[in-house]
Amino acid sequence: MGLERKIDQPFFKEVGEISRFTARFFREVTKPKQEWDEFINQCYWIGYKALTLVSITAFIMGLVLTIQSRPTLVEFGAAALLPSMVSVSLVREISPVITALICAGKIGSGIGAELGSMRVTEQIDAMEVSGTNPFKYLVVTRVLAATVMVPILSSLAIGISLYGGYLGTNIRGEVSWTLYVYQAYDALSYGDFLPSIIKTIFFGFAIGIVGCYKGYTSQKGTEGVGRSATTAVIVASLLVFILDLIAVQVVDILGLT
Amino acid sequence: MESEDPIIQVSNLNKSFGENHVLRDFTLSLSKGENLVILGKSGSGKSVLIKCIIRLIEPDSGEIIVLGQDISDLDQDEMDQLRANVGFLFQSNALYDSMTVRQNLEFPLRRHWTKEERAEKAESAVIQALEDVGLGHTIDMMPIELSGGMRKRIALARTLILRPKIILYDEPTTGLDPITAREISDLMNSIQKKYNTAAIIISHDLNCIRMTGNRIIMLIEGRNYAEGTMDELMKNEDPKVKDFFE
User: Fold this and answer.
1) In this complex, do B94 and A122 lie within 8 Å of one another by their Cβ atoms?
2) Is B216 contained in some domain?
3) How many C-alpha atoms does A25 have within 13 Å on its Cβ side?
4) Which end of chain A is more exposed for a tag (fewer CB within 10 A), N or C?
5) Virtual torsion, Cα B48, B104, A45, A19, nearest 10 deg
6) pLDDT tens readout for residues A94-124
7) Nearest chain B Cα to A34, which residue?
8) In chain B, what residues touch A131 (CB-CB under 8 Å)?
9) In total, how many domains does chain B have?
10) What tens digit of pLDDT does each residue of B122-137 get?
11) Is the CB of residue B81 less than 8 Å away from at least one CB of chain A?
């Protein structure tokens, strides 16, 4: 009875349901006849939706990080290390995580609201009775698109934030573009880029699967749609931090730092 | 109406949601070319019944045979093939609101027609289905641009595009004004004549039932409570049946 009551807790139910949903994703993605046209369409929309916001945020991040780090480094007589420090911070941690959080807000909520609305207006049921597999058409395409596009957006954010860092460096000093790039990339290795890209693949997957799960299982009319969108953002953002924590530990254990 | 083996046979169907027993040993049969109306109060399980028939909802027990196939024995692929022969008109219409009317109608074809077939015949099939419902000019419009009655017709055109043998109508006239409701009822009759479809119609609109139904089943307390033509049921002295017609 005690165990039964514990399992009945909404949190455990939710974890169980989302695990089943994820397992179904892996079953469906390995079956033949994928909806490639819809996948390309979703890649376009996910990239297009988040591109402007990611670009602006990345630029500001690079600029602000440089401006705020400079006084401390100057105090220790290490101003020359500014490009190296900024580039390592941006590549390893700040750009991937901030990009993922923006995508959790923009893409996760968008998917949650779209699928939630389709669920409560019976559009998903209509797909099913027409013989189309709505899971494959709606969920698999969106999760794959998010998994592909978040690393691309993150890579773009790294490039733009480094440019922001260059401008930030030049506000109080004078460093040529060539020297800045040399110093920034000299401090970086594959051990910085690779984990950064790999973890954004997991971030993208988490954002896609949570958004789709919340939308696909939406209930209770328009109120449910709103709740799906909101909880998709909250859960996806939390998962981004949890995955980041795991990624840091794995990278540390593997000695890639 | 032709009298042959039933094309839908539902036997001893049971479905509960928690403590709420929606269907209790419910039984019905539908013959080819017949329009069968299921009449019952809101929340009596009418929509659940037709969703069980198309397997959008899994029943707890009972047998459902559609076009000679026990649907509980079918895998997903076989069920999808069967669904091509069973159209479903949703109460909410369920048009894909991010797609044009043309894309809405083409959508069911993607699963049942090859790419070559779609390239060759989809355009004419869409135009034919739209002409059947009298809305050929809406082909490139978005659902949001259409009135309630037009959306219902487009949803019906989407149902017709695969030329189903059976159509399940879930409250086809609910929310429509009396004139539009009558037009939809007329349209349902003309479709039945043109394509010789059979239909199960969920409704509590007595005008629609009178115009379209050959036979009526009253779903009360989850059971097949009374059955007959409109005239027969109107003469029924059972208080629960009389309630509907007074």
Assistant:
1) yes
2) yes
3) 22
4) N
5) 20
6) 999 999 999 999 999 999 999 999 999 999 9
7) B111
8) 80-81, 83-84, 108, 111-112
9) 1
10) 999 999 999 988 888 9
11) yes
List Cβ neighbours of A87 (8 Å cut-off, separation of 6 or more). Answer: A162, A165, A183, A184, A185, A187, A188
Nearest CB neighbour to B80, from listed A118, A126, A131? A131
Q: B198 burial class (0-12, 13-18, 19+ CB within 10 angstroms)?
A: buried
> pLDDT tens, B192-221?
998 889 999 998 888 899 899 889 999 988
User: Where would I find the H helices in chain A?
Assistant: 2-7, 10-29, 36-75, 82-89, 95-103, 109-120, 123-129, 134, 141-172, 177-186, 190-216, 221-254
Alpha-carbon torsion (A211, A216, A219, A224), positive or negative = positive
Q: Is the dihedral of CA B101, B104, B107, B112 positive or negative?
A: negative
Location of structure tokens 């924590």: A245
DSSP state of A122: T
Q: Which domain holds residue A93?
A: 35-254
Give me the CATH number covering residue B209. Answer: 3.40.50.300
* Gap between the Cα atoms of A200 and A22, Å rounded: 18
What b/e sequence results for B77-86 when a residue is b if at least 16 CB atoms lie within 10 Å of its CB, and e otherwise?
Answer: eebbebbbbb
CB contact under 8 A, B90 and A132: no
* Residues A156 and A103 sit within 8 Å (Cβ to Cβ): no
The answer as to whether B145 is a domain residue is no
ipTM: 0.88
